[in-house]
Amino acid sequence: MRLSDLMHCFEGVTPASIATCDGEGVPNVTLLSQVHYVDEGHVALSCQFFNKTRRNVDQNPYASVRLWDPTTLQPYALQLRFLRAETEGPLFERMSSRIDAIARLTGMEGIFKLLSADVYQVLSATKVDGALLPPGAVPLQPRPRLATGGEQRRAELRGLQELSGRICRARTLEELFDALLESVTSLFAAQHALLLLHDEQQQCLVAIDSKGYERSGAGAEVSLGEGLIGSVAATRSPVKLSGMHAVRRYARAVQQAAREGGTATLREVPLPALDDAQAQLAMPLVANDRLVGVLALESRDPLAFEDWHEAFLGILANQAALAIAVLTERDDEEDGVPVAPDAAPLPARTRRFTWFAADESVFVDGEYLTRNVPARILWKLLNEHAEGRREFTNRELRMDPGLGLPSLRDNLESRLILLRKRLEERCPDVRLVPVKRGRFVLERDSEIVLESKP
Question: Which of 212, 270, 313, 385 is deepest in the core (most CB within 10 A)?
């Protein structure tokens, strides 16, 4: 058999096993964390804890690996010959990224790590007939799979062409974000996507928008190196995980233990996630060697993402990163007509905004809203609105030293988008409405009370 016919077996949904024996013929069998397809004649196995396996192949370089197709449980046998162990380079980095992401997800950093990528020559690949069937039994029919032939490829290329056009036509970052999330969820089997941007000032990722989740998660923060998304950002390498049921179950146990021990940190804004996700794919957005953000997809289908999808999404990520960089640095000057002050009487409802100076955060009606730069921007807008202003410009915000915007790549428009989405979720009767490029108004349907606390 060709190894390329067994690509689903390399996804890690069903654990593989390896059998070796030492120089005297004493066997050893253990489970494998990762079997990586290199080419038609080679695979790479993850070496983490397998001291006995390593000693055996040093004495006797032959091994047998058992793989299972996750859709049929049909087993396949690979007869291998050990060639070399790689501890650096592209192959090692690619395999290590997946291991590191799982380690961070389960709280096993420093313990669950790749020691080497062991490259083996594939001597044969054969189907193990009748391994799971009693005599005379009828084999089960495999579940239907998504088409993977030329028609699907052509459809995906047409989708890529459509998305490229939408990116080129996007006049604002918000239009671009909407186009990106809508396109990736319609092109892939996943209906859940999350876009995060890199905040260079705070050195973290901030969720800007999502699709498919019950809440957008706008404002959720992820530290570089934290979990799958943080790992992708830190290494700037894509990571694809499949068969996440066991990993997530273990992660929940670790997190529960941390909460009971008082060591867990509660997010001010929870990151949206599928509790029963079986496959995850995260891509870094990099433009001009600068991390722009991360695009992450989730699916309940353990085989939702294949190597073709990873390559395809990589093209989208590159285009999106360049477009975001261009729109972020675009001059925001544009003349506009002054907006008239509020004329209609407001309803009796009152919204209370509270500024906490200690951590520079804003709460609305006692609930957390935002912090850092977006909070400083909102507090400035609310206070000036209380004095009678409705219209504001991006330029004046950039020129205000009290907001603490970085002099280069301030990501002001992204911060305003985040602020608008947080208001939509927590306080929809107070809105920031764009009227011209670089100009917006603050609208409200309620009375506003402002208070400051240390």
Answer: 313
What DSSP line would sit under 4-27, residue for residue? GGGGGGGGSSS-EEEEEE-TT--E
Indicate the average pLDDT of the chain.
81
Residue 395 has pLDDT above 70, yes or no: yes
What's the rounded Cα separation, in Å, for the pair 218 and 271?
Answer: 8
Q: What is the pLDDT of residue 254?
A: 47
Residue 114 contacts by C-beta under 8 Å, 6 or more apart in sequence? 46, 47, 48, 92, 95, 96, 99, 100
In the chain the domains, ranked by start, together with CATH numbers, are: 3-88+111-127 (2.30.110.10), 152-328 (3.30.450.40), 350-453 (1.10.10)
* Distance, CA of 377 to CA of 47 (rounded, Å): 50
Cα R_g (the chain), whole angstroms: 26
- The residue among 140, 123, 122 whose CA lies nearest residue 131 is 140
pLDDT, average across residues 440-448: 92
Judge contact between 437 and 336, C-beta under 8 A: no
Average pLDDT, stretch 151-177? 74
Strand partners, 451: 354
Which tens digit of pLDDT belongs to each residue from 271-293? Answer: 888 877 888 889 999 988 889 99
Cα 44 to Cα 78: distance, rounded to the nearest angstrom: 12
Put the strands of the sheet holding 62-68 in their side by side order. Answer: 27-32, 16-21, 62-68, 75-86, 116-127, 42-47, 35-39
What's the rounded Cα separation, in Å, for the pair 429 and 323?
Answer: 32
Q: Cα 256–260–263 angle (5° rounding)? A: 90
Residue 68 CA to residue 8 CA, distance in Å, equals 9
Q: Are 368 and 361 in contact (CB under 8 A)?
A: yes
Residue with tokens 């396949």: 76
Q: Is the pLDDT of residue 120 over 60?
A: yes
- Note every long-range contact of 392-396, with CB atoms under 8 Å and residues 24 or more positions apart, other chains counting: 392/439, 392/440, 392/441, 392/442, 393/332, 393/438, 393/439, 394/332, 394/438, 394/439, 395/332, 395/333, 395/438
